[in-house]
């Protein structure tokens, strides 16, 4: 049961810290915090290795069922299920079979869209088998896409739109045919200046107070940006890039930031998108994410990848080199996140200091003890690519990697010409 109205008060510890819904399958992490199984699984599957509530690094990604809490929730649900003021929640609390779901899907075009979609959403959240069943149901994904495209604001209330988005996101992976999903959702330019359905954009920008709907919308947008043409069409939808960039902030919900970064990495590949992100101050936003001491490792890695992409254009490199705080943040993340992140960080520094020979960037590297980190990298089991770029960086700083780690004077370092 997930409703919370004037007559029923939901105990706060029954709610998942991620979804804020009453937990259906509570499980506990090694930190002791309990989440709904589907929510925490999605968080961990996204590459995160921290507890969302505490931001502690997890010793293990395994979780155990919280049987006591599950019994308490079931007891509480049974008592409230018979409340005459809450008949709809009683109906939704009972599990639906695939046969019943097929009947609900057939009725979804009627007046009870919100109730029908709520039942389908609950069915989808129960298991991957249920999501596969929906994804393979003939015409189901096309029907959801049609809901988002063809019905305007007066036909769909915000809860209906958000439910449609969440259900579509939950089955998109099992559906698997992202070319077909792109065909269903991208609007031809001759029909609209915006390639994305307005309802999908509205959920992404506004959504409810819960972040799940916005995350689902961002993931759907990323899933249909599968080639150069679709990436450009998505990126040039009205206000999309601005909103995505503004969502990159340490105080924003961590799973939302993670989803936004993944989406931006994908749609930033076309050359003409990168300068737009520079003008929207994406580099400054990424600096703040990289500076945050609580940023999850997976999120920091994605922030570095997006920074590498944005700074690969001339405008982006100029912006990066002029932002010493961002260069210093990149240096500090080298060797601290992952091997992949280290390679991206070194690539950014190598491009700024070696290829572009920017003195301001070099000074920032020196101030943040970057040369020591580069020397340590040379002594580690780094990849050949990282070792080669590190050698180039040491060469331009005229540092002997074998002997001058202790005697190097950072005050007299300057980039030297070839």
UniProtKB/TrEMBL annotation:
PROSITE patterns for this protein: U_BOX
Pathway as given in its UniProt record: Protein modification; protein ubiquitination
GO molecular function, one term: ubiquitin protein ligase activity
InterPro entries (alphabetical): ARM-like (IPR011989), ARM-type_fold (IPR016024), ARM_PUB (IPR058678), PUB22/23/24-like (IPR045185), RING-Ubox_PUB (IPR045210), Ubox_domain (IPR003613), Znf_RING/FYVE/PHD (IPR013083)
Broadest EC class assigned to this enzyme: transferase
EC annotation from Swiss-Prot or TrEMBL: 2.3.2.27
Ranges where the U-box domain occurs: 9-83
Coiled-coil stretches: none
GO biological process: protein ubiquitination
UniProt keyword terms in alphabetical order: Repeat, Transferase, Ubl conjugation pathway
Reaction catalysis annotation: S-ubiquitinyl-[E2 ubiquitin-conjugating enzyme]-L-cysteine + [acceptor protein]-L-lysine = [E2 ubiquitin-conjugating enzyme]-L-cysteine + N(6)-ubiquitinyl-[acceptor protein]-L-lysine
Purpose: Functions as an E3 ubiquitin ligase.
Entry protein name: U-box domain-containing protein
Organism: Linum tenue
């Amino acid at each position: 049961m997930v409703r919370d109205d004037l007559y029923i008060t939901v105990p706060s510890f029954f709610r998942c810290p991620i979804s804020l819904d009453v937990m259906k399958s509570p499980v506990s992490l090694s930190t002791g915090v309990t989440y709904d199984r589907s929510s925490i699984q999605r968080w961990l599957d996204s590459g995160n290795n921290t507890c969302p509530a505490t931001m502690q690094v997890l010793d293990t990604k395994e979780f155990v069922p919280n049987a006591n809490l599950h019994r308490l929730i079931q007891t509480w649900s049974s008592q409230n299920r018979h409340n005459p003021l809450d008949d709809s929640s009683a109906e939704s609390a009972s599990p639906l079979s695939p046969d019943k779901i097929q009947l609900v899907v057939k009725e979804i075009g009627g007046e009870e869209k919100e109730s029908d979609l709520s039942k389908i959403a609950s069915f989808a959240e129960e298991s991957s088998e249920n999501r596969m069943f929906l994804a393979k149901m003939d015409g189901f994904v096309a029907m959801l896409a049609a809901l988002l495209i063809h019905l305007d604001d007066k036909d769909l209330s915000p809860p209906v739109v958000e439910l449609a988005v969440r259900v579509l996101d939950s089955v998109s992976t099992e559906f698997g045919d992202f070319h077909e999903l792109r065909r269903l959702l991208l609007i031809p330019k001759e029909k609209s200046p915006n390639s994305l359905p307005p309802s999908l954009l509205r959920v992404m920008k506004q959504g409810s107070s819960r972040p799940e709907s916005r995350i689902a919308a961002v993931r759907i947008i990323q899933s249909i940006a599968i080639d150069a043409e679709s990436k450009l069409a998505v990126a040039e939808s009205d206000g999309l890039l601005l909103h995505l960039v503004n969502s990159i902030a340490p105080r924003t919900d961590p799973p939302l930031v993670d989803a936004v970064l993944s989406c931006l990495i994908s749609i930033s590949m076309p050359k003409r998108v990168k300068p737009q992100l520079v003008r929207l101050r994406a580099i400054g936003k990424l600096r703040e994410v990289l500076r945050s001491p609580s940023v999850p490792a997976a999120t920091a890695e994605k922030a570095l990848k997006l920074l590498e992409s944005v700074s690969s254009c001339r405008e982006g490199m100029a912006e990066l080199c002029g932002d010493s705080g961002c260069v210093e943040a990149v240096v500090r993340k080298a060797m601290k996140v992952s091997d992949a992140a280290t390679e991206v960080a070194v690539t950014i520094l190598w491009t700024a200091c070696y290829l572009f020979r920017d003195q301001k960037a070099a000074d920032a590297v020196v101030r943040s003890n970057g040369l020591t980190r580069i020397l340590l990298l040379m002594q580690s089991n780094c990849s050949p690519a990282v070792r080669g770029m590190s050698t180039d960086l040491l060469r331009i700083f005229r540092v002997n990697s074998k002997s001058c780690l202790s005697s190097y004077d950072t005050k007299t370092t300057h980039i030297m010409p070839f």
